[in-house]
Design a protein that fits this description.
The complex is a heterotrimer of chains A (about 475), B (about 250) and C (about 220).
Chain A lengths: L19 H8 L3 H24 L3 H17 L1 H14 L2 E6 L2 H14 L4 E4 L3 H5 L2 H7 L3 E4 L2 H8 L16 H11 L9 H18 L2 E4 L3 E3 L4 E6 L3 H7 L3 E7 L3 E2 L5 H13 L6 E6 L9 E7 L3 H6 L14 H5 L1 H6 L10 H11 L17 H5 L6 H17 L8 H13 L2 H16 L7 E2 L5 H6 L4 E2 L6 H11 L2
Parallel strand pairs in A: 1-10, 2-3, 2-4, 4-7, 5-8, 7-10
Antiparallel strand pairs in A: 5-6, 6-9, 11-12
Chain B lengths: L1 E4 L3 H6 L1 H13 L3 E3 L9 H6 L2 H14 L6 E3 L2 H18 L2 H10 L3 E3 H8 L12 E4 L3 H6 L5 H7 L5 E3 L14 H4 L1 H17 L4 E4 L2 H13 L5 E4 H6 L11
Parallel strand pairs in B: 1-2, 1-3, 3-4, 5-6, 5-7, 7-8
Helix pairs in contact in B: 4-5, 5-6, 11-12
Chain C lengths: L2 H17 L6 H6 L13 H14 L3 E5 L4 H12 L3 E5 L12 E5 L4 H6 L2 E4 L3 E3 L4 E4 L16 E7 L3 E2 L2 H7 L6 E5 L4 E2 L7 E2 L6 E7 L7
Parallel strand pairs in C: 1-12, 2-3, 2-4, 4-7, 5-8, 7-12
Antiparallel strand pairs in C: 5-6, 6-9, 10-11
The chains are: A alpha/beta (about 475), B alpha/beta (about 250), C alpha/beta (about 220).
Chain lengths: ~475, ~250, ~220
Amino acid sequence: MRPPANEGHPVLDPVLAAPFPQAAFTVLRNTQLRKNVAHATDVIQGKRNRLVAEKADWQELRSAASAVRTHVLENLGHYLEQFEERCTAAGGTVHWAKDAAEARAIILDILREEQASEVIKIKTMTSAEIQLNPAIEAAGIKAFETDLAEIILQLGDDEPSHIVVPALHVNRTQVREIFARKMNLPELSDDPKELTAAARTFLREKFLRVPTAISGANFLIAETGSVVIVESEGNGRMCLTLPRTMITLAGIEKVIPRFHDLEIMLQVLARSATGERMNPYSSLWTGVTPGDGPQRFHVVLLDNGRSDILARRGERQTLKCIRCGACQNTCPVYRQTGGHAYGSPYAGPIGAILTPQLMHLEHAQTLPYASSLCGACYEVCPVKINIPEVLIDLRAQVTDKERDEERRFFDPMYLGMRIANFIFASAGRFRLAQRMGRLGLRLFTRNDGWIHSLPSLGARWTMTRDLRGLPDETFREWWAARDRKGE
Amino acid sequence: MRASLFITCYNDTLYPETGRAVVRLLERLGVEVEFRAAQTCCGQMHANTGFRTEAYSQAKRLVRLYQDAETVVIPSSSCVAMIRDQYSGLIEELGNQELREQFAALLPRVYELSEFLIDRLGVDDVGAYFPHRVTYHASCHGLRALGLGDRPFRLLAKVRGLELVALENLDRCCGFGGTFSIKNAEVSSAMLSTKLLDVQKTGAEYCTALDNSCLMHLGGALHRQFAAMKTVHLAEILASTEADLMETTP
Amino acid sequence: MKMAPISRQAILDRIRKATGGGAPDVAGSYAGLHRDYVRAGKLGAEERIALMIERLREYDAEVVETAPDSLAEATQGQLAASGRRRFVAPAGLPAEWLAEGFEWQIDRGLSTAEIEQAEGVVTAAFCGIADSGTIVLHHSAAEGRRIISLLPDWHLCVLRASQVVETLPEYFARCSEAPVLATYISGPSATADIEMTRIKGVHGPRFLHVIVVRDDVTAR
């Protein structure tokens, strides 16, 4: 049921998670998970591609979306202050949390003020980022996820593996097993219709009863102080309409300038995230409306490392992200490993650049290398984040850190790179290295002219691939001989 | 027309037959080929692994080496992508004004092989003969970074005797990714096995591409599995004629 | 929450430092952003309505067209065919739509429990977006509070043809003011969380019926 990675409950804490190659190694043997992930990503990608193909102005939309997001980040302070002012004027209370600990403290303070014993939640990766649920539970408050995927994960003691379809690594049989056990429905079949109906019944009474809700936000609108949430199931609408108190947790980068900018963002988000022209339900609300919806409304603006990313010229584009998940769906690495291997609520290409940066590169240093730099993510990103460019940037930062560390002398990759650079600096040295390499590799070359097994780093190649033995004559040797013959 | 061949560090050492094929092909088309012996590497491996300063010094060498070359032809789309996409950033960060200018002057003269044939020479029929069933693998750099589009297909379409079989999921990465193939060897191999399903399905005798890096990865696994398919760089197909069939490799 | 003011300033200071304070003329910079995407639709009125109806039907919504003077009849017909009796209606719903023979609960502050008892709801709408088959509610008096179009299982929406636009930007062009509350409905609720199999009707009305009033016909 759960992927065997990390021996049991998947660890989505970058501080504790195993390095990517190690996490991936375990997960790759879970063929059920790989099948589920390949199927799910194929389906969404197929739908996305069809809709993008029919949209004649798709590239113009991407350009506009990227331009608006870039503009917001350049003027983030202005727009956040405007949002705060308008939201407050409309009856909301805006809080600022510099890090995860502060965000948790603010939210728990509100829950205690509300004397909440239970809370219902709309899916938000940001709450996973700040590890909110364990903190709520520790305070003796029960937190109920209300997205179908999140219930599957919560009841199954599992973790999300995708930004938009968090339980895509779980198949129907596994869901049936979880629901039958935790909802006490032993007769339940594995028909998705029945499973969904079970979830509907399970949640209905919670929607009608629990007076406090926590949500994330897809967009914060500076001009009006409004919040926008897009969803498919309707649990969002339930949570933001029925309770007395609503707490919205949002990263500071979620803000967009004006209501009208949604005409771009909604078009690119729905197509990229779920392959639809529009999500089944999108909701917009502004502060508090007497008689309609929660009468107490809090927004918790979260920094938690975002302002540091903002400061770096090449990496700032990371914050343009609108959490559509298209990069995950198209990534050939993610396809093989699913999300848990990334050890973070943010997985796939966006996770590989966002997570290490939120960790100030003190953790998750293997994530920037969890990519073949194929560029498929950049191609589909609706806001044109050049993910490969940021990955390469982060690799340089990780390497620069290593330059000052003792361990570099024991790292064959580091040593190999330094030696290679020394060799490439001179054609004479390069020729010599070629000759030495040819000679040395002869030891490993079999009668058929191929190498089947190498030591050290080479073993990482030969574990699944042969390597043709070095030819007797390099190109430059052939050219030099040809030159001498005066051809 | 003069072309200065940048053979690339790995072609020079591991696939010299590709270089010989490029020379044969271009000379057959009336191009005067030169080879500057001072060349080594474009710096991609270092840049992509995080060794930026090292990559810069290699970039500097390359830019200075080809200052006065009429054109530079490179049988490797990833190396061309390195020059086109990353050199200006490196030079901006670590370089000087003179180098910036030298690079700006050089850039329009750098061509990947299929670009050189189609765009610069204006030919798609190079007089090639290769009577085999072939499938073409689109390496990611060629596909996305260089936007090679239908250039390789136009060239293949004119090769006499060649039967081209389309590769499904053409735009999915084979999993090589440079040092990724070592640092994440397991995932790289998983991606490789997924790719080989599509490649084998074509029933082709040869899998070709514009990058020997991908072919080393694909071909290495095909060889390990005693598969009946071989890999070959597109240059060698294009260099092959009735009179001068593709060299048999050791 | 004494921490909050300190963090607020600290965060804004960090942002200011990171962005160099931002552009001197934010509004000008914003106005200068390129928007080359499609704004206006290309379809004529007939095609636009046809597209709206097609999209709605793709979502398994039931759609009927009616002339303005047959609206009361059409409403009656939809309500009768539903097999339901108890309906909620917003306080501002036109009286002619409150067909005879049904139990009407007008929402002048109904409790959640009372709304939960209803079998269906009838509302007007603000706009329809044909390209995506979206019904837009701004929750005016005739559209009602959000809760009444959320809890009942059956929703009848009366949409005028003159309210239908083709593209999403055209909807925004109609909003001279941004709405305080808005709900955008593009099909009944659905989930694809289990093996990507689309299942309809998780929360929110499972049955959506739309009457398209051809108030545009005489205006041609």
